[in-house]
Design brief:
Layout: E1 8-9, E2 14-19, E3 22-27, H1 29-35, E4 38-42, E5 49-50, E6 55-61, E7 65-69, E8 74-79, H2 89-92, E9 101-105, H3 116-123
Antiparallel strand pairs: 1-2, 2-3, 3-9, 4-6, 5-8, 6-7, 8-9
Length: 125
Amino acid sequence: MNVPADRKYTEHDEWVLLDGDVMTLGITDFAQDALGELVLVTMPEVGDSLDAGDAACELESVKAVAEVFSPLAGEVIEINEALDGAENTVNEDPYDAGWLVKIRVSSTDLPGCVDAATYQSKISQ
């Protein structure tokens, strides 16, 4: 499984990429593989406020429905509108074109998130 080293990973199989106070959030290759082919992505509204641990969006696949949780509090500043009608982009390219939401965060401390090597070890067990 692909696990880019430039991100942090949550216990719920989300990835986080920080650029200053903007956090980009998506799901890992492992998560998209477990979910199967995505058929619907329900996004928050730009301007929505999220607390750490809140569901940022919901993914529906042919197998299951899963929530994507925000590890940090902040305000939604952008959603990946390109996924509307092309949800399988998350399956094909979860780390780049398949990102889900960008959130302006109040803190960049990522408690509970792990680096790529630790995450790779977790999913390899």
